[in-house]
Design a protein that fits this description.
3-stranded antiparallel sheet
Length: about 80
């Protein structure tokens, strides 16, 4: 039943893609003000992040990656 084995491999790849989670988060103006106060900054005009969360292959965690710049700064910088 070699054809079945090949299709299950394809479905495993599809399941892996479906398990990934893309998130977009951003701070409210009130949260930006609180963060600026906490970190003794003059101002944070905006703060946001785009995250790609992938399940771990084994127990004990997963991968998270982010991309984008810092709001209110020079922009486009990666940390």
């Amino acid at each position: 039943n070699a054809g079945g084995g090949g299709s299950s491999g394809g479905s495993a790849a599809s399941r892996k893609r479906r398990n990934n989670m893309d998130l977009s988060i951003s701070a409210t103006p009130e949260e930006c003000t609180a963060l600026a106060t906490r970190f003794r900054l003059t101002n944070i005009t905006s703060l946001s992040a785009e995250l790609a969360v992938k399940p771990a292959l084994g127990a004990g965690g997963g991968d998270v990656s982010s991309r984008g710049g810092r709001g209110g700064g020079k922009g486009g910088d990666r940390d």
